[in-house]
Amino acid sequence: MVGTTIEWFDFFIYAICAGLVFASQYFAALGEDALLLSFATIGISFFFRPVGAIIAGHLGDRIGRRAMLILTLLLMGVSTVLIGLVPTTASIGVAAPIILVLLRILQGLSAGGEWGGAALLAVEHAPADRRGLYGAFPQIGVPIGLLLANGVLALVAGLTTAEQFLAWGWRIPFLASVVLIAVGMFIRTRVSESPVFEEVRQTRAQSSMPIVPLFRNHWPLVIAGALMFAANNAVGYMTTGGYVQSYATRTLHLDRSTVLIAVMISAVGWLVSTLAGGWLSDRYGRVRVYQVGFVIQLAWMFPFFALLNTADLGLMILALLLFSVGLGLTYGPQAAFYSEMYPTRVRYSGAAISYALGAVLGGAFAPTIAEALQTGTGTVYSVAVYLAAMTLIGLVTTVFVKERRGVPLSDEVARTQ
């Protein structure tokens, strides 16, 4: 959980700053398209997530989960600190946005490999009847990372003037990541390898090329996992990708610090609902909890934007809190569900690639699409239609996925589709 929190803190401060800072400091020459391109740089990194997932999945299924977690943490941390040192376009010209995008790509590679290892290490250590709850702990690293990212940026924004924040204040969270790297490395180097993977290693049953049997025998599961996560990720990236923060400050003219604090409060709600989702999936099944979460997500989509448009802080917090309920129920069971989908020899590859592809299909350009829809139609409700459609895709997909709660994780017999 701590390592995943650090990973996503690093990932999210970029996404939030894309809406608040980078458009004016790195892409201002593009005029009205600056914000769209700034959001697009969030999406570009997503195309490198599957690459990171394939590399980390291959090595994770070959040499172990723990080694990959250490590697991905280092890659994310170093690239984040370097982002905080990139001069603006006013200083070095076109080289500035190019360097920024290259470092964001490194973040994407790390994020693609991180989740699978964290999820498997938690779930493969868990008792069979508590995998959902154990697996929810790396999941809550996301809302905690969002909470910390918004909290630190809100603190910096509150202690600096608007000019100071844009000039240098935004860099502080990126540079402070060096401390978090040290904490994460201290913890991850002391975590034991997954007992399920150790069993496979001792019998020399690892696959020499895990991706081949994965796509030969389990490709329907890879697609189903990707579609379910896409439905969750597109909606989640309204806050984690910075769209809500940008919309509230630029269109509704709310104070930057106020908006960041509202998102922090919603992150606490997301944390609680994610833990609840994992726990409930141990009692009622992964598929059932997913379906309830998607229905809630769908039902709240239009009321969410209606309350947001009031520009009232209390109603905005209420909207975000209830928005987080469906997100948590479709995110909490994910680590356990995806771990139970695949046999050990291809589990890291399968879980990581499903996750990475879902991120590309869902979150990659969700803020960019949302901004384009809002600008093109003149109403934020067009964004609600887009998110409702994504949610429906996830809900329909769950109908075709088998419940796998409690299956033996050490069983190397391929799961039936």
UniProtKB/TrEMBL annotation:
Q: Which domain of life is it from?
A: Bacteria
Q: In which compartments does the protein localize?
A: Cell membrane
- Ranges annotated as spanning the membrane: 12-29, 35-55, 67-86, 133-156, 168-187, 219-239, 259-280, 287-307, 313-331, 352-373, 379-401
Gene3D superfamilies in alphabetical order: MFS general substrate transporter like domains (1.20.1250.20)
* Bilayer topology term: Multi-pass membrane protein
Key word Protein transport present: no
Q: Which residues form the Major facilitator superfamily (MFS) profile domain?
A: 1-406
Q: What terms describe the molecular function in GO for this protein?
A: transmembrane transporter activity
Protein keywords:
Cell membrane, Membrane, Transmembrane, Transmembrane helix, Transport
Q: Does the keyword Membrane apply?
A: yes
Q: Which SUPFAM superfamilies match?
A: MFS general substrate transporter
**Which Pfam families does the record associate with it?**
MFS_1 (PF07690)
Instruction: Quote the cellular component terms of the Gene Ontology held in the record.
Output: plasma membrane
- Name of this protein: MFS transporter
Q: Which organism is it from?
A: Kibdelosporangium phytohabitans
